[in-house]
Amino acid sequence: MDIAGLSVVMAQSEVRANAGVALMDKVMNMADQQGSQLANMLGESTESASHPTLGKTIDIHI
């Protein structure tokens, strides 16, 4: 393989690696945001319960 071909292959490999890292960074940021939103939703749901025993039991008939 000549030097020009090797250079092209190395550049493509670097671009793929950079794209993978950028994608992983976006995925991690999104997961962090979703986790904090979920924590906020769970905190709000327990604070605003209108009836203290509502949702505590389930009636099941088989």
Keyword list:
mainly alpha, 73% helix, Putative motility protein, YjfB_motility
**Number of alpha- plus pi-helical segments:** 1
The total number of structural domains is 1
Parts with pLDDT < 50 across at least 5 consecutive residues:
none
Question: Largest sheet, described in full?
Answer: none
Structural class: mainly alpha
The gyration radius over C-alpha positions equals: 26 Å
Shape: rod-shaped
For this structure, the quaternary state is single chain
Q: Give the end-to-end Cα distance, rounded to a whole number of Å.
A: 72 Å
Mean pLDDT: 88
In sequence order, what are the helices and strands, one letter per element?
H
Approximate strand percentage: under 5%
Strand tally is 0
Helix share of residues?
over 70%
